[in-house]
Amino acid sequence: MNQIAPSSCAPAPTIRQRGQHEVFCGLTSIIWLHRKMQDTFFLVVGSRTCAHLLQSAAGVMIFAEPRFATAIMDERDLAGMADMHDELDRVVARLLARRPDIRMLVLVGSCPSEVIKFDLAKAAERLNRQHAPERRVVSYSGSGIETTFTQGEDNFLAALVAEAPGAGAAAAEGARPAALVVAGCLSDIVEDQFARYLAGFGLADVHFLPARHSRATPVIGPQTRYILAQPYLGATAAALESRGARRINALFPLGEEGTTDWLQAIATAFDVPADRVEAVTGAPRRRAHAALAHHRPLLAGKRVFFFPDSQLEPSLARFLAREAGAEILEVGSPYLHRDHSAGELALLPPGVSVSEGQDVDLQIERCRSANPDLIVCGMGLANPFEAEGRLTKWSIEFAFAPIQGYEQAGDLAELFARPLRRQGLLTDLAE
Ligand code: SF4
């Protein structure tokens, strides 16, 4: 396996911005979380705006039995004329009576529920007393006051860890803490690939968080090692560590280099012999190289500007620069977890601007004057940039698409290459 050497010069100092920002709120993460967790229902306690956001973020998906909904708070609730807890109990009782397939109910807080200080943690506790053990009820905040869209997942996973069985209680029932927890929602296809590699390493006791089924939440204790599969999980990491779990430090598994580093870090932590690692990862690594070679001619030398959106930006920029030869102008991220992203930042090419937070007007000006070939940004900024004749890529697509792992390295490059290729075709047609 390749050892990864950080670049000799560090990136330029971080630009910290505390102005207006344009990102989706944490409710958005329900879209990928509800697909992952087959027996879980997400009930947003919010306003019509929240319901509209979910509906439009979910696109035109039509389900016979959807697994998310919004309990809409109306004027009476907001004015304090109705007892919100009674109302919520009624909604939940109706929902669970109609949907016996639901094993876990997740109450999701929003801006309105937060503004009126509706205590969803207390509501979840009370509902748990009524419906456990058949159904579990947990809560977290997806409010836009506090969260960007990937932080919704972070809050949810932290809530799952908080109510996961502790090592002490589990030992009394004969259960052992997990050896390895992979934290971060991955599409099933990526999870299956990683599970195969780790089984090939000889690791038997591996748990993915979130699991596909709500009952599969692992026991966490001081014997547990965990590795992050997503970079936006600061609260989840803190929750795992509060149970005694220890983090395996690695790059995030994006691109061939990131995936190799991530798997090698696990292998090192569990003393997996090098020849075994090579036997498991050699062929997929070569396939990733071949897939990337196909996209490199188009991406090499392209100047790319990342606006802050998902916290995936430093890893995406590292991949694009080192594996596709692109030139990175600025890497924005809503938040930077210094420890978790240290490896990613160290591998950015010298002189790249890194910005944390957002002052959107100033950043738009910086972007215009840098005049990049491709702008990776949220939907709200993409349309005005396109109207100026600039090429954009919606950053939310990187959160929805399966992009982690060797077999997806080519697809990840393709996401960046597609707008550039489309522009090339349009230019050819115009000539
Ligand atoms: Fe809007 Fe807040 Fe509801 Fe998100 S949680 S849709 S930001 S009102």
TrEMBL record:
Cofactor: how and how many bound: Binds 1 [4Fe-4S] cluster per heterodimer. The cluster is bound at the heterodimer interface by residues from both subunits.
Keyword entries, A-Z: 4Fe-4S, ATP-binding, Bacteriochlorophyll biosynthesis, Chlorophyll biosynthesis, Iron, Iron-sulfur, Metal-binding, Nucleotide-binding, Oxidoreductase, Photosynthesis
UniProt feature coiled coil, ranges: none
HAMAP family, A to Z: ChlN_BchN (MF_00352)
Protein name as catalogued: Light-independent protochlorophyllide reductase subunit N
Family: Belongs to the BchN/ChlN family.
Protein role: Component of the dark-operative protochlorophyllide reductase (DPOR) that uses Mg-ATP and reduced ferredoxin to reduce ring D of protochlorophyllide (Pchlide) to form chlorophyllide a (Chlide). This reaction is light-independent. The NB-protein (BchN-BchB) is the catalytic component of the complex.
A Pfam family: Oxidored_nitro
Organism of origin: Pannonibacter tanglangensis
Pathway: Porphyrin-containing compound metabolism; bacteriochlorophyll biosynthesis (light-independent)
InterPro entries to which the protein is assigned, alphabetical: LIPOR_BchN/ChlN (IPR050293), Nase/OxRdtase_comp1 (IPR000510), Protochl_reductN (IPR005970)
Domain Nitrogenase/oxidoreductase component: 32-418
Subunit structure, as described in the record: Protochlorophyllide reductase is composed of three subunits; BchL, BchN and BchB. Forms a heterotetramer of two BchB and two BchN subunits.
Residues annotated for [4Fe-4S] cluster binding in this entry: 25, 50, 111
Cofactor(s), names only, from the UniProt record: [4Fe-4S] cluster
EC code: 1.3.7.7
NCBIfam families per record: DPOR_bchN, PRK02842.1
Gene3D superfamilies assigned: Nitrogenase molybdenum iron protein domain (3.40.50.1980)
Catalytic activity: chlorophyllide a + oxidized 2[4Fe-4S]-[ferredoxin] + 2 ADP + 2 phosphate = protochlorophyllide a + reduced 2[4Fe-4S]-[ferredoxin] + 2 ATP + 2 H2O
